[in-house]
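Input record (one chain):
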Amino acid sequence: MKKNDEFYVSYIEGSLGEKTKNRLKKFVFAAILFIVGAALVFALSQKEFKNSSFELSSDTKIIGIYHENPYPMLRVQLAENTYKNVLLLGFGKLSVNPYLKELKSEVGDLNGKKISIEGNLIYYNGKTLIQITDKEKVFLEAQTAFNIPKNELLSEMTLEGEVVDPKCYFGVMKPGNGKIHRSCAVLCISGGIPPVLVATDANNLSEYYLLTDIKGNPIHKDILPFVGKPSEIKGVVEKNEDWYTFKIDVSNIKLLDTPSNIYYDISMQ
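The corresponding structure, as predicted from the sequence alone:
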């Protein structure tokens, strides 16, 4: 040992030399800078949460007029001459149909009937959905059938966008990007969740279209090969108050050779 070398004895107070103290201070300072820097890089590299809500821990009761146009919805009055159509979903990756089966067997045709539903609200960008978890929380409020506004025919359109399942995309998953979420979307749509086309315009504003076949019937299995893949789709657009319906022929869908904005790590093959 050299004459100027410091010798530290742990059980002797004050035996830590000045050189060793300085080295430890530098090491601790460098370690703190590294940890803070790594945390900042990690935080800045993450995608922001969407401005969406999923009220999983609380139930909300809504009352409105039931209609299938072509997917189950509840037309809820918010104020005089102001309505919102709430898309109805089942628990997990299922449609709402199993939760309505018992009531339909008692009442018959539910279209136009006033019912109440209790479930978990999902809402994002002006769209509202509700997840029903218990068939015992679905009630008929009146036998009288009410009129439901007919869809307003807009025009034939060619849109570019990606097919998603609205349950996860609108709020259950935040932000819901990546290959694993595309697989989840395929399972949800397979289970009866309505498919939705997310189309983004030149101003980076998104609009949402419930997809049906060309006759306006629900579509599930046939759309699965196109879920989460940027596509060009031709069809007829109709409007039902706060929702658009896009009637399409899946055989005319054209896959685009562009990366996904939603399921960004999907191979386009």
